[in-house]
User: Which sequence fits this backbone?
C-alpha cells in the first residue's frame, strides 16, 4: 500500500470537509438549496426554493450580459448657459432671479441660482441639482388615481423639461391625501443609473414639486466581471435575510439590472458605480451587487 498517497488523500478529504462545514455556518439553512440549484438552475427550481421560505416572485426574471464592467460616475456640472436654458424650459422667458434666504447662520457651500415666476420657484446649482416648487397647488376634492398622476407627470416631463431621452419612467407611489410620487431614473446604454433621478410630487392635478439629479456616466475599459443572474440575486437576498434573522412572507415585485452608488461631492471628480440588481419588494427596495451578491443597501423605503 502506498501510504504517502493515502496520507495525501486523507489531508485533501479533511480540507474539503472543513470547507463544507464552514460553508454551512454561513449558508444554513440555504446550503442545500444552493448546491441543488447548481446543476439545474431552472426557474422552477428557483421558485421552489423561494416558496419554501414564503417568498413570492411576481412576473419574470430579466436576463443581462454574462459579464459587466464597473462604471465611472460624476456630477454633471452646469454653466451659466445650461442654467439659463433650464430656466427658459421650465419657467419661461419671463422668470426672474430671486434670492434664497438661509435658515441659519451657516453660509451656503454654494450659492444656487434661483428664479421665480408667479407662484413657481426654480432652484439650480452648478453641481447639477434642480428643484421646482409650485406654491399654488391645493388639495382637490376629487383626487387623482395613479394613472392620472403619471399622465400629469409625463406632461410636465415632456413639455416643461423637454423630455430628456436618457430618463425613463420608473415608478408611481401613493402618498397621503390623494397625492403621488412619480419617479424617473437615468439610463446609460440601456441600463439604469439609479443615483440619477427625476422625482415629482403630483397633487391636485398639478406638479407640486420636482427634484432632478443628472450624472455623467462612463463604463470602465476592461475589467468586466461575471454577472450573477437575476435568480441568483434573489436567492442571495433570501440568504442574507435569513442570516440577519429576518423571516416571514415577502413578495418580490420587480428585479432590474443597473448601476448603483451613493452620490459624492469630494475632491475626486468621479467615483465608481457597481453593477447591481435592484430588487423591489413589499418590504422595501434592495440593491444586490451583481458581481458578488453582497447587498449594497438594506433597504430603502418602498
Assistant:
Amino acid at each position: 500500500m502506498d501510504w504517502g498517497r493515502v496520507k495525501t488523500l486523507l489531508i485533501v478529504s479533511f480540507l474539503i470537509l472543513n470547507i463544507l462545514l464552514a460553508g454551512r455556518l454561513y449558508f444554513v439553512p440555504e446550503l442545500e438549496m444552493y448546491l441543488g440549484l447548481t446543476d439545474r438552475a431552472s426557474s422552477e427550481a428557483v421558485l421552489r426554493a423561494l416558496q419554501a421560505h414564503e417568498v413570492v416572485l411576481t412576473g419574470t426574471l430579466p436576463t443581462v450580459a454574462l459579464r459587466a464592467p464597473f462604471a465611472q460616475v460624476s456630477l454633471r456640472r452646469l454653466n451659466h448657459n445650461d442654467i439659463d436654458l433650464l430656466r427658459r424650459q421650465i419657467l419661461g422667458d419671463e422668470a426672474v432671479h430671486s434670492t434664497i434666504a438661509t435658515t441659519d447662520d451657516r453660509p451656503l457651500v454654494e450659492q444656487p441660482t434661483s428664479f421665480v415666476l408667479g407662484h413657481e420657484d426654480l432652484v439650480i446649482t452648478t453641481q447639477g441639482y434642480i428643484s421646482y416648487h409650485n406654491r399654488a397647488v391645493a388639495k382637490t376634492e376629487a383626487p387623482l388615481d395613479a394613472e392620472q398622476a403619471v399622465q400629469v407627470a409625463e406632461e410636465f416631463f415632456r413639455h416643461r423639461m423637454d423630455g430628456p431621452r436618457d430618463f425613463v419612467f420608473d415608478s408611481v407611489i401613493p402618498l397621503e391625501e390623494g397625492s403621488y410620487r412619480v419617479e424617473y431614473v437615468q439610463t446609460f446604454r440601456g441600463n439604469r443609473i439609479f443615483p440619477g433621478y427625476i422625482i415629482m410630487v403630483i397633487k391636485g392635478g398639478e406638479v407640486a414639486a420636482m427634484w432632478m439629479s443628472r450624472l455623467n456616466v462612463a463604463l470602465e475599459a476592461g475589467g468586466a466581471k461575471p454577472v450573477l443572474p437575476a435568480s441568483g440575486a434573489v436567492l442571495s437576498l433570501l440568504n442574507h435575510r435569513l442570516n440577519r434573522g429576518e423571516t416571514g412572507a415577502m413578495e418580490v415585485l420587480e428585479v432590474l439590472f443597473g448601476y448603483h452608488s451613493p452620490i459624492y461631492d469630494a475632491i475626486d471628480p468621479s467615483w465608481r458605480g457597481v453593477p447591481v440588481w435592484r430588487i423591489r419588494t413589499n418590504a422595501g427596495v434592495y440593491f444586490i451587487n451583481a458581481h458578488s451578491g453582497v447587498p449594497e443597501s438594506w433597504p430603502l423605503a418602498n
